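Lecture 7 notes: from sequence to structure.
We start with the chain below.
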Amino acid sequence: MSELVITNIDSVNIHIDCDKSTAKELSDFFTFKVPGHEYMPAFRNKLWDGQIKLYNIYKQSIYKGLYDYVIKFAKDRNYKIVEPKPIKRKGSVKKEHIQKFIDEHLKPIAGGESITAHQHQIDAVAHAINNDRCLLLSPTGSGKSLIIYALVRYYLDIIEPDKKILIIVPTTSLVRQMLSDFNEYSSDDTWKAEDNCHCVFAGRDKTSKKRVIISTWQSIYKLGYEYFSNFHAVFGDECHLFKSKSLTTLMTKLLECPYRIGTTGTLDDSLTHKLVIEGLFGRVHHVTTTKKLMNKDLLSKLKIDCILLNYPEAVRQKNKKMKYQDEIDWIVRNENRNNFISDLGIKLKGNTLVLFQYVEKHGKPLYEMIKEKAGEERDVFFVFGGTDVELREQIRKITETKDNAIIVASYGTFSTGISIRRLHNIIFASPSKSRIRILQSIGRQLRKSEHKDTAKLYDIADDIHWKSYKNHTLNHFERRLKIYQSEGFDYKKISLHIQGNNYE
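Predicted structure tokens for the same chain:
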């Protein structure tokens, strides 16, 4: 019988001592093709085989977060498992204890009033504490910031009263938002976020005597091991991004950090990416779903109109079998299509977000078209990667006090981390197949407010198929429909014939 001797190396890796044939078997088991590798320069230049190997056969090591997968690998093959010291700790903190800690010790405030944690938030906090490391999958609007705040305070006050905590977020605006949320939650507490949290982004000191560091990953990932040795707990917010090389490098420098909590609203469909992130943090724990939150009336109800634009036969024949990028360019530059989107944006009542992918060839023309048609009757804003963070926040605040603004924004700036309570409509103006982008974008508008209880999404798609050939973005549209179906969203398909400036 083969034997696997599993020992701890550090907070990042475990060592698996086994014979050569078992090691080869392990290596094969934890080797995956990277999605989209065929388009990457390293693969095209034959410098890389397109695979990621999560088990290092030479060092006989693997990410600690993949421990459960190693155990399953061994059990499925009836291999013997030997652990001189237990690798995985299982705590016994009761949910009732967590609820009491939040209600009586933290006494969180939101909107100037005391709030009570929902059961799914209590469950998430208890799970994280009892498992030391995990990846909390919790959709936008589920109260993820309160979960993080409660965990931070529990580590600071109960588990590690003299240690430091690192919180990693993708953008400067999210650094500020996290601090703002913590300030609000602690406004009725002797513990003040401003006194205990230090923010790190461009131009700010990276070190502080304060016990909580909230930082963009770009600001710290190049720092040495010594910097990261100060932290005993790390939180990775929007951790679906942690599959990137820079972020994996950062996480592997935290050699003395036993507590690792990742949070995100969604993951993509790739097993490879999921295992990389689980390796860095721990196993996925499904906190709740968007549909469950809607059913409990904690989020706005969502209605989706999937609008399929059908083009004349002559247009479809002319554009048959276009390459993917040529099709995208044709779609986003199509004046009739853009007229339809701009007319739709103007007709919709309430604050409306129009999302695009390409700034110069789509975003700017759409913005100019909408602004011209809106005239003085509506506020129209344009937001993209080059828009100053302060201006983005000003625009967001304007929409919280008005109900007729139109924001034309890139997916990258408004699909993650920014929520507008008074956002009534979203228009997907550019085609997409990314599950993460789609669900994160939808999440922007689902927060409830006294001014709205229903959110509306308009998904614009294009049918330029010719005979048996189905165009690329039509395939992407069908993938989006499957996502809506799997999430239990209320959607309907609407077919319109587009020709000139008429839509039928």
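Points to note: The chain has a mean pLDDT of 90. The radius of gyration is 25 Å.
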